[in-house]
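Go through this fold for my students:
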Amino acid sequence: MSVKELQEKREKLVADARAALDEIKSNTDEARAAELDTRHDKIMAEFDKLEKLIEREQRVAAAEKQAEETRAKKRPAPGDAEASGTDEPGEKVDYRTAFHRYIQVAGDMSALNEEERAALKGGVAPREIRAQTTTGGSGAAGGYTIPTELSSQIIKTMKAWGPMYDEDICTVINTTGGNPIDIPTIDDTGVAVAQHTEAGAVTDDGGSDATFGKKTLNAFAYDTEWVKFSWELAQDSIFNFETLLGSLLGERLGRRANTELTVGDGTGDPNGIVTASTLGKTAAATAAITWDEIIDLEHSVDPAYRTSPKARYMFNDTTLSTVRKLKDGNGNYLWQMGDVQKGVPGTFNGRLYSINQAMDSLAAAKKVMLFGDFSKYFVRKVGGIVMFVARERFAPDIGLLGLIRLDGELGDTAAVKHLITAAS
């Protein structure tokens, strides 16, 4: 199936999912509603698989194109009788000529034309069962001569992490040292201005003076512990083991950094954005949220923050699965799939959103959704992720250690608010 056909199928799945939910009305009986809800979930699960299949098809198409270009370089130019192994165009190719051509191209059948391949197949006698083969219980028939090969690719299990380390979402401060950084703050929004009376005395008691505060960014360090591997493994592995482990350790540190910047308690750790956020809305249920509650959450944040280019929602993927099914008062779905071909991202309630797997799923008394201006959350990075390699210390083994230093703080607690589920 072509990429275009897959994309058309993806659009049909979205339409089918919407149609399934459209059938659920206020008077629909529970059994039918449950059936339609299950159908929707199956369709969306197929949608997710199709997204990955489209990506794979595009990669395969690119690889096939590159392979075809490579084969084209090997093929003889049209009319090159000597290279093609034929005397004149149109002459029938015999087995001897075709085999000679097969040897010339080092056994690459794709470099032969159709007549040459047909001649080779027609001139081969049926193989005898007693021939030396790679099969057999002991390998004595020839199997011992076949080496075991290892693919040059490795299958690595993945787990999503982010996005709190992303400078496109938060405000990132990069420093070379780890000394504390103070960020001055001021909240003057509650100070009133008095009406002036002509010829009256103006109050001068300091009650209207501006009050400043500060937020401090430190540099908390996290390490992967030493991970050792043998000198022999480093020499014999088909992979560059030092590079492979370095990549894995870097991802471990990235996951820990995102977790701390999300739910860190602020005591010896970053003050995570969920922890630092203020209450915007309490849901009526313990494991569900409604469209009205999401509207209340968004409007609990002052319009001064909602107009920021970094204003967005944040929740984990399980919560996204739930809100995909929600509609507004006009029957429109909140979640929009966007347009992959045009590079248009998916939106939630017309706004950008981020998937953060470090956030809680729907359950009692959980902060499951954030909304606000994420530019007010400051992430301090001390350099980048640092990898240490110890050769002499563990000789002849080799040790790798990953370190990261960072901090995070919500500079303005009014900028980001959370929706919390009911306690019971």
About this structure: Confidence is low (pLDDT under 50) at residues 78-89. Residues 381 and 406 are 5 Å apart (CA to CA). The first helix runs from residue 3 to 22.
